Amino acid sequence: MKKSNYLFLMLMVTAFFSCSDTKVIENLPEDTETAAPVPGYFKKRVLIEDYTGSWCGNCTRVAYAIDQMYAQSDKVVSVAIHNGNDPYHFANYLPLKNLILPNSDLELPQSRLNRTIVWASPEPSNIAQAKALTGNNAGLGLAMSSTVASGTITLDVNMKFAQNYSGLKLVVYVLENHLIHSQTNYTSYYGNINPVPTYEHNHVLRHNITDLLGDIITESTSAGQTITKSFTLPIPTNVANPNNISFVAVLVNADNLALNARAAEQNETQEFEQNP
Fold this sequence. Notes:
- This protein has helices at about 1-20, 60-70, 95-100, 125-130, and strands spanning about 40-45, 45-50, 75-80, 110-115, 115-120, 135-140, 140-150, 150-160, 170-175, 180, 200, 205-210, 215, 225-235, 245-250, 260-265.
- The chain has about 280 residues and is an alpha+beta fold.
- Strands 9, 12, 13, 15 and 16 form a 5-stranded antiparallel beta sheet that branches. A 4-stranded mixed beta sheet has the order 3-2-4-5, covered by helices on one side. Strands 7-8-14 form a 3-stranded antiparallel beta sheet, with no helix packed on it.
- The protein is globular.
- The termini are far apart.
- Residues about 1-25 have low confidence and may be disordered.
């Protein structure tokens, strides 16, 4: 009788796990800033989206923190999203504003790590928060190749997966660098000068190739898969100097959290940053 009860119980447990939505948990590597690289996984970069303006005197605080990140880490990708009475105003900013501040106005400065994580203020004192989101063992990687010539951008974004994913979206930006314009400065950074007369604005968002919140990836994103998305478009009319164009690609999950990001110069052909 006891044996029969045991067999019945085992059958019920088996049936429960067969019919439920329970998923097998993959044996994933440690993905902290200092974890040793695991073969097959990818360099993990933190995405910093800096909501800024040349008129915003406190925005130089965030800009300085981003400069420090670049000085201390090779695992950072930044995007400057200008807003307001600014020659680099990004007109299509509302989807991003509604993502980070759905119930309030966009008061500057604002900065987000991996799209949705608030970078604690004062940002120069919280570099460690951003660096903690970098690592050596991302489960997915990005590589781009592009040409910018004769008024046209041709861009391939390659994605590769070391583990299984679902619900991913791809975000692709066109940026412009080396834009010189006066910057209001209420901080002690950048020589304690107000305004900074010949401030160099870099990583300035000029155009979104995909939807700002990402295009849904319909192809398989299982471990071992590689996907390429190809784009051809005219150089955006708001770009001052096509020679200063660069690109950013980001993979985000269904909750709009960036899982990995990468920047690329124009006319560059990248390889995946995959651990040997």
